[in-house]
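Lecture 7 notes: from sequence to structure.
We start with the chain below.
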Amino acid sequence: MAVEVESLKGLGNGDNVSVPGKKFVAPPNAERASCGDKGVAVSIESLQGKNQVNYLDIDLHRFLHDVPNTIPGEQHGIGSQTAIDWIQIRGGAFIMGSQPGTTAADRDEMPAHRVKISSFKMAKTEVTLRQYNACVKAQACTAIDTVDCLSGAFFADGNQPAVCVTWHQARAFSKWVGGRLPTEAEWEYAARSGGKNVAYPWGSEEPISNKATFNAQVTRPVCSRPQGDTDQKLCDIAGNVWEWVEDAYRADYEGAPKNGRPRLLPPWAPYRVMRGGSWSSPGISLRVANRAHDLPNNRFKGGVGFRPVISN
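Predicted structure tokens for the same chain:
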């Protein structure tokens, strides 16, 4: 962490300071300089070494204490209020899909097959409306089209998951934050709390309202059902909104990749996969092995969103 002191005489709590291409505000709890008549200009390099940002604060000790709440995330253009909270998912091998005789299993979940997954980071939450709109404001994403989709209560809170999003829009946002959509195998591995043999992210118990948002009238703000989190604390990976993944849809797993990579798109398979169930789904659709699909330009009646990943 590099710290430089410059002459910023007269600046104090809430005052603005401009640097080329950026504008920052002194944190609300900043006090005037205690070191003579100079303020403190602080240049901070993120722990990942990817970004360097400039801030003004008057009390250096207090400023450094507040760093987690004031510096932008490491994503491209995302600020502290919209930064992605990345969860490390340690790699391993697991059995993907369902065995014959599994309750409610569909043919497209078979054959069950062993897949080896490399470690990756996944967004803790489904991408929120606030996060997606930040991408739109940055002109890196197109606006959500609500015509013939959802409205009203589904857009009342910026912490609700983005809905009415196409696969192409989900990919654009993921790229903007330096990531990508998860492969179908990565998604299921994460939903199984790291590849466990479970029916739902929380275990084998059937869904109830304190574990997931389903059989409902509207989405809920992300992480409203923490009892349904995975072991790694991924929120709402079951329910709230379906989630786009990278893979093309096939009606079974014959010939599916065993290395965690996405299944490529043959000319006769134009659909893309969605996982996890949504606010309007019955509980059985929240199973970790359950699959849905739609055309990449469609919005699945408003019940689809996404969460990005980053390769390690």
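Points to note: The chain is about 10% helix and 20% strand. The chain has two domains: 16-70, 86-311.
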